[in-house]
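Figure-free illustration: sequence to structure, shown twice.
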Amino acid sequence: MEKLIEKYYRPRLPHIWCPGCGNGIVTSSIIKAIDKLGLDQDKTVIVSGIGCSSRASGYLNFDTVHSLHGRALPVATGIKLADPELNVIVITGDGDGTAIGGNHFIHTARRNINLTVILFNNNIYGMTGGQYSPLTPTDSKATTAPYGTLERAFDIAELAKAAGATYVARGTAFHANMLVDVIAKGISHDGFSLIEAVTQCPIYFGRQNKKGDASAMLKTQRDNAVTVEAAKKLSPEQLEGKFKIGVLHQSEAPEYTKQYQAIIDRAQKGAK
């Protein structure tokens, strides 16, 4: 791990994350996936939005963009269109990616552009003080919902699939080795990839909802996550209150930058 730190991290300590936050585990999983694939650092760009998770890009030794709130995907789309040979990875959170960035999310998935999105899902807006997000479970408390949220949460994996994503996976901070694997597969996939990384926020979500400390929240991930393979053997009643981890969906569809280049080629031929 020391060699990975020297190679892939910028010397920016201390970091901003709270004690017990799972964002460091998820960030480490991204780095391990990149290293596993042997990606060229000079050909890999990491784009993030705004939020606790999005601060990860500042710690990583790549060409990085810490963009505007909710705008990581249009920035990443521009980078990928400008140079389709680049590996473009997007780091976002449940608020940044699905609230102010929700419209960009569904249309980037619809286009099936070859971007890999790692969405850190801690069920809360952490950096701004614990407001509820579109992924906060119903009836959960937040600073903007002191009596509990009324709204139903998105299932971001199902939303991505319905919008047209051709690779959808989920992992957790507890299941870190699996998280590395599904991120690596997403990066290797030729099309839009979403990896939902379920992680814990013991300060703003955990305290308000009496979830215990970080270790207790990690145990909750352990006890409620079911692999895709194991879920096939369980009844709907047995799956109640559980969530699936692993590769949830994979399909093939035309990739956007290749289609875009084909239009350019046709236009250039027609102009001659």
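We now fold a second protein in the same way, so the two outputs can be compared directly.
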Amino acid sequence: MRKRFRRTREFIGRHPRAASLSAVAIVLAFLWATPASWQTSTLRLAVPIALAAIGGIFAEKSGVINIGIEGLLIVSAFSSIIAVYWLGDGGATMGVSNLWWGLLVGILVSVLFALIFAIVCIEFKADQIIAGLAIWLISLGLAPFASRIVFGSPNTASVARFGSVTVPGLSEIPIVGYLLFDTEPQVYLMLAGTLAGWYLLSRTTFGRWVVASGENPKALDTAGVDVRKVRYAAVLLSGVFAGLGGAGFALGTLGTFAGGGDTAINGRGFIAIATYLLANYHPVGAVLSSFLFAGLNSLQTALQSAGYAIPTELIRTIPHMSVIVVLVLVGRTRLPDAAGDHYESGED
């Protein structure tokens, strides 16, 4: 048994991308055979994981390890709900639905926290892991505290959610139609964000600067590009994607924010980190990998609803245990050479 496990791990180590794609393909094939309700649930649950993963890719590719992604999801989810509540649930402001204003507020708050993280890490050269943990812990305490002030409870009031948007004609395509063309706006935003993230990182000059900033910042500096500005932009971009994921999840799937325990986000930011490591920092691969964890989350919910004689606490560990398994098997994902390192212009 040990030899078989060792061979499996060695194969994954030599061919991480093939192994990752195989694992995702197996899960997608499994989801394809499941009921439509499970498929749509998986797609919605993948939104915060996928978008946070894309944001994490930009930050880490630039050389800044942002494990505070979980905190960005928390503050964006909470602030989007509170914004809709204050603006008027179900109403509109300046002709635009308050849900969209709530989404914008969630993104802006996430970017603000990402900016604080960037200043602490880039200007003051703080340890990036500790700074990321600080952002998470502050968010973990701040959101329930603010909720208690406004609602007298760590849980917010419920607000309206995004409704489904149907694309005429395309929604009639068998299987794919109801999944991709008859769904909520946050799913469309996830798909658009995936393409935008891939194009920006792989096909633009800025994307090449981001990669160079994380691999060889001195070479980028020598070429006349300000490494600090590139890293600032990448971290702020991680705030945009995480904010989109957190706010979209709150306003499209939850309709409320639960501040107790691990909050409504429940570790999805940390799962996003495992997701982009599994995908070896590829935005499209990260989104496909997010379906793996979202599918297991749907499985957890289905098992709880079915009332099987399995302890609820054990069922809830399924998505998180899968993260541990993935990290054990995919042990050779190569970090950018300068990830976690500080850089000053002109240093040797």
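Summary for the second example: The beta strands are 92-93, 96-97, 165-166, 182-183.
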